[in-house]
């Protein structure tokens, strides 16, 4: 007999078998998770130590073993690294962006900002909902009030938008600086923000092809700079007798899986040659040598100075290229080949016989540099820099003096800064920037409370709690700076009533005009925080039951009929009546 799943209901508080009710159980779980993120908000935020501790037993005297660790204040990194067993953990993770299992993430493909604020905002909405639930307000009515409040928030963002043409303050560098606030750049924050703004001006919104971050340990963070081109940090020039620097370079890119390099054709397994004389072998060798020489001559005639291939370059081609003074770099990742194409303007040639001058790209300098000694190796690390490209569609940030946990965290923060700078300069109904430092949250909360008076009584309660949740974000912001959250928010509420640009400028703690102080947030980030937090709260509030679909008993063996008993009854019916089916 097949086993049946057991069903457990958690939505009946009067059931003696169940001590947990919904949605209270999920709200409690999110509240516990949000405690990890509470200290990571704002310019004076704290970091969290993540330990990878393998299971070594259940004994109390077991010594703690640590495989790896990370120190981070980035909300996305925290959420993706936490081992959350509760089902709401997956809801939280999927709320920040696309779910990519395992190690399928591509650096720069997804840029998450405001994740900690999303978690804290959703938690504040849910925590405030508990009082409404206990007062008898139905979850659907709470969700309706939250949705109405979200509409007011989005309308306020549109009316508060500051566009590049507005000349009201809030430059791209200000947006990038605010995105970097609270991270590990120290006194170099202004310089890195300027570099991020310059990158955004070149490429717009960054992605995995148009923007890359290369970190090196040598030098100081002050040596960091924006490369108007591409950096190959895993490839080197193939021969020592090739030039290590080429000025005013013409770049040839050879890609594709069949002819993405400079190699002799492979001989198929069933290929047979009948040799009539020893001279026949020499004929084959001379034919291959002539083909190599013709191809290299074609490359030279096209005016090529640098050859970059996706696949390998054999020793014969290397020698011919070196004889002509051509720099060659092999086995370049396809994504880096795309970046080179976007930065230099070169077309990736898929077939070697299509090499032509019209496919070449240009850059001022191609140089191989020895930068640092590799860990546990005698050889030094080398990188190849393509810089000085004209109007590049792909740029690279070269960050020096980064090592340890900083080496893995800095690229993520820089990408957020470039994204913020790009979003601040776009012109549209949902683009631009708004005052930061809690000014926008206070203005939206005040407008929601005013709008709530036009709704029915139960929606009013939900909308007022929504406004309170917005103010709680400001409380977390100032609490992490060591300030009194109650007094500061009260003072800010009074000051913001007369000027909606007034917020808290940290770390000074001044309540002043945030636009003049250069503290701004991008509208897409703000809108994403409010929408994601509201949607997550609505999703949790609508869950009022839980089903445990764990099967009990022995499962059916492989090959056995799943419906064994009904099948036997059908067979008996056919034998007794001679009918082919039980339905007759």
TrEMBL record:
It holds the Pfam family Cpn60_TCP1. It comes from the Archaea. Keywords: ATP-binding, Chaperone, Nucleotide-binding. One of its GO terms (molecular function) is ATP binding. InterPro entries: Chaperone_TCP-1, Cpn60/GroEL/TCP-1, GroEL-like_apical_dom_sf, GROEL-like_equatorial_sf, TCP-1-like_intermed_sf. Coiled coil: none annotated. Belongs to the TCP-1 chaperonin family. This is Chaperonin GroEL (HSP60 family). It comes from Halobellus clavatus.
């Amino acid at each position: 007999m097949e086993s049946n799943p057991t069903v457990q209901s958690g939505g009946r508080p009067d059931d003696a078998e169940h001590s947990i009710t919904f949605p209270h159980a999920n709200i409690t779980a999110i509240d516990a998770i949000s405690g990890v993120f509470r200290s990571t908000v704002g310019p004076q935020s704290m970091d969290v130590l993540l330990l990878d501790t393998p299971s070594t037993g259940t004994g109390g005297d077991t010594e703690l073993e640590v495989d790896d660790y990370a120190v981070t204040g980035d909300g996305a990194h925290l959420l993706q690294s936490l081992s959350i067993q509760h089902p709401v953990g997956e809801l939280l993770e999927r709320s920040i962006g696309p779910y990519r299992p395992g190690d399928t993430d591509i650096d720069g493909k997804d840029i998450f900002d405001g994740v900690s604020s999303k978690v804290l905002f959703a938690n504040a909405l849910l925590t405030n909902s508990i009082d409404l639930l206990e007062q008898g307000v139905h979850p659907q009515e709470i969700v309706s009030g939250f949705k109405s409040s979200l509409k007011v928030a989005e309308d306020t963002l549109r009316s508060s938008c500051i566009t590049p043409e507005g000349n009201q303050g809030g430059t791209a560098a200000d947006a990038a600086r605010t995105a970097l606030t609270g991270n590990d750049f120290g006194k170099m924050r202004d310089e890195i923000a300027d570099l991020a703004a310059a990158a955004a001006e070149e490429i717009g919104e960054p992605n995995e092809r148009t923007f890359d971050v290369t970190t090196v340990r040598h030098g100081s963070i002050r040596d960091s700079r924006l490369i108007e081109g591409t950096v190959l940090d895993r490839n080197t020039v193939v021969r020592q007798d090739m030039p290590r620097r080429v000025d005013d370079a013409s770049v040839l890119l050879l890609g594709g899986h069949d002819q993405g390099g400079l190699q002799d054709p492979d001989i198929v397994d069933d290929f047979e040659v009948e040799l009539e004389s020893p001279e026949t072998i020499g004929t084959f060798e001379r034919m291959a040598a002539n083909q190599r020489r013709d191809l290299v001559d074609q490359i030279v005639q096209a005016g090529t100075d640098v050859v970059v291939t996706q696949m390998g370059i054999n020793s014969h081609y290397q020698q011919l290229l070196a004889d002509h003074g051509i720099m060659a770099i092999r086995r370049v990742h396809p994504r880096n080949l795309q970046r080179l194409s976007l930065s230099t303007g070169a077309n990736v040639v898929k077939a070697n016989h299509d090499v032509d001058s019209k496919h070449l790209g240009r850059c001022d300098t191609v140089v191989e540099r020895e930068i640092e000694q590799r860990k546990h190796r005698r050889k030094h690390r080398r990188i190849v820099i393509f810089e000085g490209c004209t109007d590049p569609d792909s740029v690279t940030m070269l960050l020096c003096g980064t090592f340890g946990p900083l080496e893995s965290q800095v690229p993520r923060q820089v990408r957020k800064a470039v994204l913020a700078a790009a979003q601040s300069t776009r012109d549209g109904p949902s683009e631009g920037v708004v005052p930061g430092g809690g000014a926008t949250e206070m203005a939206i909360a005040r407008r929601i409370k005013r709008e709530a008076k036009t709704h029915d009584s139960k929606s009013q309660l939900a909308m007022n709690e929504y406004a309170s949740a917005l103010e709680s974000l400001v409380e977390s912001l100032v609490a992490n700076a060591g300030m009194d959250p109650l007094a500061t928010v009260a003072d800010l509420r009074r000051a913001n009533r007369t000027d909606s640009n007034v917020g808290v400028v940290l770390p000074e703690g001044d309540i002043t005009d945030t636009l003049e102080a250069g503290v701004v947030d991008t509208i897409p980030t703000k809108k994403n925080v409010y929408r994601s937090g509201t949607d997550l709260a609505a999703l949790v509030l609508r869950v009022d039951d839980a089903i445990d679909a764990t099967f009990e008993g022995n499962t059916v063996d492989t090959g056995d009929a799943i419906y064994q008993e009904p099948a036997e009854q059908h067979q008996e019916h056919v034998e007794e009546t001679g009918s082919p089916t039980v339905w007759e």
